[in-house]
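Reviewer 2 asked us to include a model.

Predict the structure of this chain.
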Amino acid sequence: MSQALLIVDHGSRREEANQMLEEVARTVRRLCPNVMVHIAHMELAEPSIRQGIETCVQDGATDIVVHPYMLSPGRHATQDIPQMVQEIATRFPDIRFRVTDPLGLHDKIGEVILERAGLV
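Predicted model (structure tokens):
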């Protein structure tokens, strides 16, 4: 089984914001080199979720984990992205798809906030 991780953000009209997701993907690739990591944007920019999934499939993925790169479990992370993935997944019946929870509550988020605030 060839596993892929598709990291999905909202997408932005600002290219600098969209490029940040590619930097996140580079970090994840470095931390987990045995998993193919791709990115996608929910809207406003490319690659779209459909394009991201197609890239994973073209690269040989048989198991695709989609991670909403969002802080809270809002509508995009809990409804829109899972629905988009489900619709696209029907084109690939032999591939396993799973959508994770967004970043949400985690001690490491708190650590990052304290670091950015210069308090640790």
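The mean pLDDT is 96. The chain is about 45% helix and 20% strand. We have added this to the supplementary material.
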